[in-house]
Design goal:
heterodimer; A: about 375 residues; mainly alpha; two-stranded antiparallel ribbon; B: about 300 residues; 13 helices
């Protein structure tokens, strides 16, 4: 009966003796190609010329200098959050609430910026950045505390807290922090120049936040490959029992994962509002916190991989916007693509740990 | 203060939670953790809504909603059961996919409103003053939600097939060794979960707010997941939890009417905060979770040969 559900009754999956390094790299590439194929089908179903649509989606945004700077602007939060999440996911700590930590980073940092609106000092910006990071860190610390102290499932608590964070921001910009001269729009005042991240290239939105992202990738790379903490995180994920016998403290690693990923999401949040947006709005993220989950997996939970994956997912955002303007595709296509990509990736990933074997299901003999 | 309308709104707010949690209970009892409830609900919601708009038939809409839930659950089942993918990651993928797919299909349906499903008229009973409204004046999905949780509770604890399903969830290797097909049981359990989530989504877009809005589930799928933990994997407690959360959700609509002045955002936060608090409360008793949680939950089953 179970054989009905096996794709190829004669080919069964057999565990590999060790993880296949080849498939770790191949799997995301194949997943991206398969997603593009699905794109052709989806675009045809929507009644658009599929190749024109693919061109406007994935190529045209990169043909202008402005397009490339926008790509980096969008990739920045994805990479910052993705690196943090990847560290946690490696250790099997599931922080799904990066969206909330991102928002809290924007709230704490943005709040500081509004408080310091009339201070003309170069210290304002560092203060804003530090408090923003602490905001995300604090919001990430809650699920870590609830997990380690009360054993509460971190997936559910971190996600629930995301909704709470977004509602907090909504309350603040509709109420106490609304710009009195803003014609009743739910927006804060525009931050003073002293609270803004400097722009790197004129006539673009590319700002110093992108440099933070690159720096964070490098630091995380060193952390994961060259330090004892990184080693412990990897062992906990690969072999929890071994980690236990080795005496690694599970709760310490949960805290660490959440503080790192929360802090980085907070930094991404404040970099977004003080670098790209320049004020607080009811919504400061088009779902970066959730897309970063895909970024982390697509980047193979490796900081450098996350950098590339962040660029690819950022392209899906600006491609989606471009396709909406140029050929009237619904904006939701981006989200659909992202979901499909993750599906294909997870399906291809089976070949990292297993391989197809020609063994017969019934006799267990090789029948090549 | 009139309590009857409050009680009626509690029932409408609780029904989608109860439907989705019932499905997830069966899925988890078979040892599979499907975090994609939110995505399956959204797909069910838009499919049911689209079917209702184009056919005008409530029954067809409900069926389309439920079976589109089954269809997306099937993707999850193939990935986690056949392709042995990580259940947590695949569940998240299912939610991201469901959000995107429903928003794409739904972009053609924004702004259309719908006649809500008719109330079932149960003869004389519906005309009894208060009790008639409270107990006998609902649409078919409300009764279905009661029926399903009763049936599932009975199935899990009193039938042989239910015992097999629980065995698969407790120890897939033992169940396999006894000759039960772990994969078949799990496929069916995951598809049933999709069916119930699809129904829950249909209820949202056909009855609760008879129109389509992006992300209209607003975290209810995740709350349903938390409810299963809250109910320590038991049907009766899950039903109680669903009604408790329905009541908390609906509080925001009534509080303003009672003259209490709190920013609406804080009232909207309540169900999410309540979920966190309840999870903390239930989970802090580690032993209780360990005894009640299916032991194989979330683990990949690789059949030994």
């Amino acid at each position: 009966m179970s054989q009905i559900f096996q794709f190829f009754p004669k080919f069964v999956l057999e565990p590999r003796l060790e993880v296949s390094g080849k498939w770790v790299i191949l799997s995301p590439i194949i997943a991206i190609i398969l997603t593009l194929f699905s794109g052709v089908i989806i675009f045809s179903l929507l009644g658009k010329d599929p190749f024109l649509a693919l061109y406007t989606f994935f190529v045209q945004p990169l043909t202008t200098m402005f397009g490339i700077t926008e790509l980096l602007v969008k990739a920045t939060p994805l990479v910052l959050i993705g690196v943090g999440l990847a560290i946690g996911f490696k250790a099997n700590v599931w922080n799904i609430g990066a969206e909330g930590q991102f928002t809290m980073g924007a709230v704490f940092g943005g709040g500081t910026a509004l408080l310091c609106q009339h201070m003309e000092s170069i210290l304002v910006l560092p203060l804003v950045l530090v408090l923003g990071t602490l905001g995300g860190l604090f919001w990430g610390a809650i699920p870590a505390f609830l997990k380690t102290r009360f054993n509460a499932n971190e997936i559910l608590t971190s996600l629930m807290l995301s909704y709470v964070a977004v509602l907090c921001l909504s309350y603040l910009v509709h109420g106490p922090w609304r710009d009195p001269a803003g014609f009743n729009f739910p927006e804060s005042q525009i931050f003073s120049d002293y609270a803004m991240l400097p722009i790197l290239i004129e006539n673009s939105r590319l700002n110093l936040g992108t440099m933070f992202a690159i720096l964070v990738v490098l630091v995380a790379w060193i952390l994961m490959t060259r330090t004892i903490i990184g080693f412990q995180l990897r062992v906990v994920g690969l072999a929890p029992t071994a980690a236990q016998y080795a005496g690694f403290k599970q709760s310490g690693l949960i805290w660490l994962s959440f503080l790192i990923s929360g802090g980085l999401a907070g930094l991404a949040g404040i970099a977004e509002v003080s670098g790209t947006i320049g004020q607080l709005l009811p919504s400061v993220s088009p779902g970066y916190g959730f897309t970063a989950i895909i970024v982390a997996f697509l980047g193979r939970l490796h900081p450098v991989g996350v950098l590339f994956a962040g660029l690819i997912m950022a392209l899906s955002y600006i491609g989606g916007e471009n396709a909406q303007i140029e050929i009237g595709l619904p904006a939701a296509v981006t989200g659909l693509f992202q979901g499909i990509l993750l599906f294909f990736l997870l399906a291809c990933d089976v070949l990292v740990r297993y391989r197809f074997s020609h063994r017969s299901v019934l006799t267990g003999e090789r029948c090549e | 203060m009139d309590l009857l309308p409050v009680a009626l709104t509690i029932i409408t707010a609780s029904t989608p939670l109860l439907l989705a949690a019932t499905g997830e209970l069966v899925t988890e009892k078979a040892g599979v953790l499907n975090l994609g409830v939110e995505g399956m609900m959204l797909v069910g919601a838009i499919a049911a809504f689209a079917a209702a708009v184009s056919t005008g038939s409530g029954l067809i809409a409900i069926l389309v909603g439920a079976f589109s839930g089954v269809a997306v659950a099937a993707i999850f089942a193939v990935l986690t059961l056949t392709c042995l993918a990580n259940q947590v990651a695949t569940g998240l993928a299912l939610t991201i996919f469901g959000v995107g797919l429903s928003a794409l299909v739904g972009s053609n349906f924004v702004g259309i409103s719908l006649e809500p499903l008719p109330q079932l008229n149960i003869g004389v009973l519906s005309t009894i003053p208060i009790l008639g409204d409270l107990l006998f004046g609902h649409d078919v999905l409300v009764y279905l939600s009661f029926l399903m949780i009763l049936l599932v509770g009975y199935f899990l604890s009193k039938t042989r097939s239910g015992l097999i399903l629980r065995a698969v969830g407790e120890s897939h290797d033992s169940a396999h060794a006894l000759g039960y097909s772990v994969l078949t049981v799990r496929y069916l359990a995951v598809l049933f979960g999709g069916f119930m989530s699809g129904l829950a989504g249909s209820y949202l877009s056909l009855v609760y707010t008879p129109l389509w809005a992006e992300n209209m589930t607003a975290g209810r799928g995740w709350i349903a997941l938390a409810l299963v933990v809250f109910g320590t994997w038991r049907a009766g407690r899950i039903a109680f939890g669903a009604y408790l959360f329905g009541a908390i959700t609906i509080l925001q609509l009534h509080v303003q009417g009672w003259g209490i002045n709190i920013a609406s955002q804080f009232m909207t936060m309540l169900p999410y905060l309540a979920t966190v608090i309840v999870l903390v409360f239930i989970s802090s008793d580690k032993m209780k979770i360990r005894i009640n949680a299916p032991q194989s939950i979330g683990k990949v089953f690789y059949p030994p040969r």
